[in-house]
Design goal:
- This protein is 77% helix and 0% strand.
- It is mainly alpha-helical.
- The longest helix has 34 residues.
Length: 164
């Protein structure tokens, strides 16, 4: 972390065009990484500040080529737009038909046997439900307890000395 702060101070001093403080010069002299950083930063600064060597007409040539390529780009034909519009119209028509289609009426003769059975069983639910819900869990704990006892017996039998 300390080197990042030092590099930041070096960069700020070079950007401002001021000479480096003595404390920074001492740190740079004692650390090869900071010395490389200063050399790279100064090189980059000199390259970025150097006068442009590019041909001024090059920019105009590039911009002319870009404008020409925009004019030659193909645009979709009007038939494409007609096809797109007809597809959208067909989709809207299908949605409208789906919304307005008649719904099927429920059957007239509905058997009430199932609801009556449920009502009759509701009186037995409070007594039967705890056993039905907890039975699988209780059976699993019995099996786990059996496995633990058998594992303990096997481990105890494999020890060279008896466990009391």
């Amino acid at each position: 972390m300390k080197k990042w702060l030092t590099k930041l101070r070096i960069s700020a001093a070079l950007d401002a065009g001021k000479p480096l403080p003595e404390s920074l010069r001492q740190q740079i002299a004692s650390d090869p990484e900071l010395e490389r950083f200063v050399h790279r930063t100064q090189f980059l600064d000199s390259r970025l500040r150097a006068p442009k060597l590019a041909d001024p007409d090059l920019h105009n040539d590039i911009m002319r080529a870009v404008r020409a390529s925009r004019r030659t780009q193909s645009r979709p034909s009007p038939s494409f737009y007609w096809l797109l519009a007809s597809g959208a119209g067909a989709a809207i028509a299908i949605v409208c038909l789906f919304i307005t289609r008649p719904r099927n009426a429920p059957p007239a003769n509905v058997s009430m046997d199932a609801p009556i059975t449920v009502l009759e069983m509701s009186e037995q639910m409070p007594a039967a439900m705890p056993d039905a819900v907890m039975a699988p869990l209780s059976n699993e704990w019995v099996r786990v307890d059996h496995d633990v006892r058998k594992t303990t017996e096997i481990l105890a039998a494999s020890l060279p000395f008896p466990i009391q």
